[in-house]
Amino acid sequence: MTMTADLIPQAEARLAAYGELFDKTDKAAELKADLDTRLAKLREAAADKGNLLVVLTNGPKMSAYGKG
Question: What are the extents of the domains in the chain?
Answer without folding.
Answer: 7-65
